[in-house]
Amino acid sequence: MELFALVGAPFLVAAAAPLIWRLRGPLRAAAFVAVPAAAFAWLWVAPSGDERAELPWVTELGLRLVFELDGLSRLFALLITGVGAVIAAYTPSYFGKKREGGWFAAAVFAFMGSMLGAVCAANVLTLFVFWELTSLASYALIGFRHTDASARESALQALFVTTAGGLAMLAGLVLWGQAAGGYDLADLLSFDLRSHHRYPAVLALVLAGAATKSAQVPFHFWLPNAMAAPTPASAYLHSATMVKLGVYLLARFAPALGGTEAWTAAVGTLGGMTLVTGAVLALTTRDAKRLLAYTTVGALGAMLLLVGLDTPGAAKAAAAFILAHALYKAPLFLAVGAIEHGTGTRDLGELRGLAGRMPATCAVAALGAAGMAGVPPTIGFLAKEAALEAADGPFPEALAFAALGVGGAGFAAAAALVGLLPWLGRASARARSAHEAPFGMWAGPLLMAAAGAAAGLLHPETSLRLVSPAASAIAGETLQAKFAFWHGWNAPVMATAASLVAGAALAVRWDALRPALAAATAKPGRLRPEAWYAAALAAVRRGATVTVRALQHGKLRWYIATSLAAGLALALLPMLRSDAAGLSIPKAEWRVYELAVCALIVVGALGAAATRDRIFAIVCLGAVGLGTTLVYVIFSAPDLALTQLLVDTLAVIVFVLAYYHFPRALPQPPRRTILRDAAFAAAVGGFVTLLLLGASAQPARERISAVFAERSLTEAFGRNVVNVILVDFRALDTLGEIAVLAAAGVGVYGLLKLRRAREEE
Amino acid sequence: MEAVLPFVIGVLYAAGTFLMLRRALARILIGLALLTTGTNLLVFTAGGVIRGRPPLIEGDSERLTGPYADPLPQAFILTAIVIGFGVLAFAIALAYRTLRDAGTEDTDELTNSEALPEERA
How far apart are CA A165 and CA A171, in angstroms? Predict the structure, then answer.
């Protein structure tokens, strides 16, 4: 029950957010902070036993909402609500009096609920639904400044990339669930997929979902572009939580999907490449927010790399790094937001000597940067040590070790660029006019950054409460993670020291290095993944244009032909495939006058089709009507015969009256067109004939008319059963029929009379 | 004749379809009428046909006995014939009105649904 409240409450806040936004001052911030803070407190003290909540959803399809809270879910839920509380306090100050802030808060809280649902889901279909909900929230937040075309484009790009991956993931999960015979996490994880022939397909599809969501190479391009979002959203979705969903997914499935060479090769390679790519690209931009986004890409790569290594040590490092990254990256983003708020720019080249003007924000940035660089005593340092320790070994670990070392240097340089250089030295022009951000914009981030240091200092507690339970879920066995600040002079310590020195050197020489680095990484158009995305999008647009041009050609007769052809194809397929008794020509009695009736209809129909003389066509139509009347007479349907005769007479009169006014025939189309249409028409006619022959081959069915035959006289007092059905048993149908006729009559009257009214004008 | 009816109905459908694919409204409407008739006959035949046994209860009987023509498809077709005529009458009036307002019955020229009559010229 508590889990439903946990997932549902943020959605309720989202619905009320525009109203809450009208509150004044601290009350507004307090109202927003209340729910995530309460949820965080509950999660912190929640019993360590696995919570579970279940609700039937669409029982016919076996869909249920199932939530569970294990160590990994709890770590993520704590991050979501903890960072969420800080964001909720930050947002009112960031937007000030602007009305749109209410809508922003609504989207943020909707995201919070979706994200909590995703990480607590114990059923993969539930997981998928919340997974896609986070993509939608991300779309709304990236495109929040919707008057800006580039923001809209970035939002669409993020949505397309992540939902395409989400669909691939769904396909993989369905393949897996079918094989396992259930969609609960427990079903999937207990099924031995690794020896199943579907394993490669499932692995590839799930990996596609994780790689797009967590911005792995070559899908990494959407994340820096997502920085079009307001800064609180960037800090929350695009660094601390949502982008980690891919990592979460793989960590969650590691016990079932991992443990193979394919897993280590695919996940590890993906993560390693992304780590190096992100760390290098981070140093090519002067926009502080984009720089941080690239380091996020790199950090996500590092997490995937650790999950891919698939050892207990790597699981411990991954869990610690997930925690550490959220605790340093979100404050850094929020600090950049505060810098932009105070100076009006986030161009690192224009920011120097800010420390005196914005001391609180400086503290946030410095603490956050310490975590990113991996400086003791932060949890960032411990996580990095643990990662290097897990990768300390022969091939393939050695490759991971190298990637982590390069990434560490990149992160250290980026940390110095954001956490040190803007604050030191003589104040630049921008810095001289800067002012400190309001309390709400630095208190929460400072708390979070300080928590990063505290988590390191109190590492036995951190390990017991957060890291060990999560690492156990990743590894699939109970782990007791231990951390220490000093292991002696081993390889990880050397690597850490080396990467710090390298990072510092890179940061000092950055002004000279950056253009060269940017030029070196600028790939020709064809090699840029973003260009592939653009090409794919252009191809979809071209395909849509071609399809629309082909289908929406504006010619009535082609619309009719298209519809008929599609209907024919749809009806023919099951007919050809069914193992029905085939066709049969009914037993026949042959009488000459009956054949004459048939001939009358056939000649009439062909004559009507062939002639271009309108009056002759009407005569042919009359012949067909007469022949039909006679068919009804022969086969015991006197009421039908009477009605048909009456209606046909009327129809002929109406046709003649109308066609008197019609112009002469249009010019004859080319012979080819006529032959083509005739062939198509013959196909339709042939299909109908086949349908009837097939129908008569079916065994005789029990007739439901027996009821009418039995009760017509005794209950409805009528001897003509057809009449009794129409006016008694199914009288409501007849009422409907009369209504249709009346509507048609009104329509005809209107079409004829309105013309006169206008002509009189 | 039962053996021939499926083919007769097929011819009705073919002729109706062919006419529906013409450009002139006048011919399309004839096609509509043929398709209506063909469909009524299709339902009639598919329901099974029998000679000389209309679904009428004899003078001294209380119910239909012995083999008899199925009254239910007949009731449906009766409705369909009447509604078919209503639709046809409306379509003819619509075509007539279109001809008066647009000055043409060529469906290839009747593509600008947004324009006012005076703009079409």
Answer: 10
